[in-house]
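Contributing new records

If you add data, match the layout below exactly. Sequence lines come first and carry their own label; structure lines follow with theirs. Keep one chain per record. Anything else will be rejected by the validation script.
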Amino acid sequence: MTTDDITPAVRLDSVSKSYGGSYAVHELDLDIAPGEFFSLLGPSGCGKTTSLRMIGGFTDPTDGTVLLGGEDVTALPPNKRNVNTVFQSYALFDHLSVADNVAFGLKRKGIGRAEIRERVGTMLERVQLGPLADRKPRTLSGGQRQRVALARALVNGPQVLLLDEPLAALDLKLRRRMQVELKQIQREIGITFVFVTHDQDEALTMSDRIAVMNEGRVEQCGTPEDVYEHPANSFVASFMGTSNLVPGTYRAGRVVVDEGPTLPVGTRPAVPDGSRVSLSIRPEKIWLSDFEPGMALASGVIRETVYSGPTTTYLIELAPGITLSVLEQNTARSRMEDRWSGGERVEFGWKPEHCLVLD
């Protein structure tokens, strides 16, 4: 059996949602595989949460079809769909214990007490909350409350779990730890996760695939490595982390930078000679020393130096009005006196395959 023969856990077929003639989501086509950790990523207002709500049944699409496991659920209400949702607010019942919060959905389904006790106990152990079963949510930390909400959703055995920015309220250190824990839980349980976030690092860390959205459409869908290393366009390149976008004109395997140097590119782009393009180069792909044969080399003036502990970022003026961000590990130049300062002219370079020509 090939992957093409597997029925998607979630399929959105030309799904749109409009409000007063303005589209929040426009003709969205997505297939999400069973057991996949799939992220909808994009800036505020791009349509990612609206898409999630249409999968869950909280928002009705204007056009198109929503399918879960091959079944058309477009007209079904949320309680008739085999999905559960973890919201950013967690929506826990503070008057109930942790165990009773987790058991809430099972009780509403009329599951027997013995089975509820067993399933709740197993799930609390899985999310490392067994000893806190009798505590009230208000006595827990943010990370513990997040795990209660996750356990409450997973204990019902949904076909798909929808997560609407569930880590956004946590501090940075805890959020990073919970990213790892959430991915581990998903792998252990094997349920399809559809995760909404505006945090690029979060999506890269946790996802099997990412759909990058903008203005109600998917700009690119692929693995984290695909969308980071091979962005489909300038929007994806700039949104996925930091990318230097250098404007210029493409001519026979080179980009003539506006009022600047002519730079070679590694792969011939699908644009005709004379096209206006952007040359995309990640800051961490640019070298400041120990150049290798075949690298594209340029020089510029350092305009600013930003020390960040393990790394230093240099802002280097390549041409009038064009500044590149260059990220260097503080290894060879670990002392302040070894690093460059503003006003100095430096040479820098990159491997041609590390720059992309974007139309």
